[in-house]
From TrEMBL:
The keyword Transferase applies. Pathway: Protein modification; protein glycosylation. Catalyzes cis-prenyl chain elongation to produce the polyprenyl backbone of dolichol, a glycosyl carrier-lipid required for the biosynthesis of several classes of glycoprotein. SUPFAM superfamilies: Undecaprenyl diphosphate synthase (SSF64005). HAMAP family: ISPT. GO terms for molecular function: ditrans,polycis-polyprenyl diphosphate synthase [(2E,6E)-farnesyl diphosphate specific] activity. The lineage of its organism: Eukaryota, Viridiplantae, Streptophyta, Embryophyta, Tracheophyta. InterPro entries: UPP_synth-like (IPR001441), UPP_synth-like_CS (IPR018520), UPP_synth-like_sf (IPR036424). This is Alkyl transferase. Its cofactor is Mg(2+). It comes from the Eukaryota. Belongs to the UPP synthase family. Its EC number is 2.5.1.-. Keywords: Transferase.
Amino acid sequence: MPKHVAIILDGNRRWAKKNGLKIAEGQEAGCRRALDMTEDFFIEGINTVSLFAFSTENWRRPQDEVDYWMVIFEFFAKMMIPQAHRQKIKVTVIGKRENIPASLRDAILEVEEATKNYEGKHLIMALDYSGRLDILQACKSLAEKAKKGLIQAEDIDEKLMENELMTKCSEFPIPDLLIRTGGEQRISNFFLWQSAYTELYFPTVLWPEFGKADYLEALTWYQQRERRFGLRV
């Protein structure tokens, strides 16, 4: 079984359009699907699940859509507290926080503080996250440490780099499996460094329709993969 599964939650807008609903209703359905699936995410010993919910590029979408996303994320954060306590799940949010509303920042801090001591199940939400910016901020941090004499240039290796990435919060920062729902076959600036040897799975099912059976199918597909990491087997 993978230790870390990353999921790009794609297809909320298309699901809403297909069902004759408003975009906001698709966003709400996607949020509820994430809440409903939380228990299933950690079956069979999976430790970390990362959900890519809102990219830095998503700020370019219509303002009313972005505003509603912020409301939805705040709802998700508040709803996760009792659910995380019941299932003993640690919740962490990665990404920039400067541009999100203060009430959402407060909700994020609240759920993180409430669940920080749980171990074995770790839910990471990527909000205003960019893989390129993640790598860039890690490089800047290493450069600053070198400037202060804390490290030497020759000390910088993959391990030091990974310790500066936002996924350093996880015991298993490298995803074994990345699932993108909705049929698109790209990772859209998500976990660029971390996904070098990640197995990529692209089901056509839209995220609000993605259920336990679909998740189990993805895990079964992963188990059938021969992971070589560049080696000849």
